[in-house]
Amino acid sequence: MSNVKTLFITGVSSGFGRALAQVALNRGYRVVGTVRNATAKAEFENLHAENAFAYELDVTHFAAIEAVIADVETHVGAIDVLVNNAGYGHEGVMEESSLDEMRRQFDVNVFGAVAMIKALLPFMRQRRQGHILNITSMGGFITLPGISYYCGSKFALEGISETLSKELAPFNIHVTAVAPGSFRTDWAGRSMVRSARSIADYDALFDPIRQAREEKNGKQLGDPFKAASAMLDVIESSNPPAHLLLGSDALALVRQKMESFSAEIDRWEALTRSTDG
Ligand code: NAP
Fold first, then answer.
1. Closest residue (by CA) to atom 23 of ligand 1?
2. What are the entry keywords (predicted)?
């Protein structure tokens, strides 16, 4: 029992979190997951008689996080791997989307993840061991009209993740930012927050994008169970990467972005260099 690895995953009610929990339970891990209601808690704990534990936690209830982590460490087991998965997508043209919507997007996708990490790090640092996976997105590298708040939050998490991987390397704590492409989860369905349309000037640009996302929901390329298996490969690696893309769509789009970014840097190199001295 004591050499069973413990994974702590935020948001195990559906999608990547649930798939990762199921695959990990099948591979013999102990999995502690967060959910947001009693029904989801009971349902999750029914997945495995000994190894599935659920805590009710909204990751934006920052004051509650430390007690949850401490309780898991004391009563369930030392957390070997934290997976910051809980998150959602806000969709809306920026001019049409309120600052409150932006705050909520960052509270969940960025502040929630950071709060979890901060609560757990004293334990991992003391053990000189641990692995943190932050689920970002290809939207942490590429952008598309209508998801500025989402991309902003995922760019932020990518940056925090990479920085943290350098700060924690001396303590043998690995940090991996996992950036999936489009996968068949509830992300573009029940979980997505869509701002109402209000400015006709954006109709031509944005209406087809919103419609295409609604039509594609449930038919995305990626299989969350295959993503789960890939994440476990990274968790089981002795030398995990700081960044991992998941899906051939993410691969193509991020490569394309890097090439065009690099070409733009080259085009403006002389002006860039002109400010030295
Ligand atoms: P999902 O099926 O909608 O799952 C999202 C999970 O996050 C649910 O368990 C949800 O809980 C939980 N959650 C949302 N807000 C929360 C909060 N404030 N506190 C605690 N838990 C919360 O979608 P998913 O695709 O698996 O999403 C998981 C992560 O993958 C997200 O960070 C998302 O941005 C990222 N991602 C998804 C895709 C994709 O194509 N699916 C691509 C790139 C990145 P409830 O059931 O209680 O709502």
1. 187
2. Oxidoreductase
pLDDT by residue (tens digit) across 129-179?
A: 999 999 999 999 999 999 999 999 999 999 999 999 999 999 999 999 999
pTM, to two decimals: 0.98
Q: Are 30 and 51 in contact (CB under 8 A)?
A: yes
Residue ranges covered by each domain of the chain: 6-251
Largest Cα separation within the chain, whole Å, is 67
Span 6-251 CATH architecture: 3-Layer(aba) Sandwich (3.40)
Q: For the chain, what percent of residues have pLDDT higher than 70?
A: 99
Give the residue numbers annotated as catalytic, written as ranges: 150
Residue 121 vs residues 3, 10, 86: alpha-carbon distances, Å: 21, 16, 18
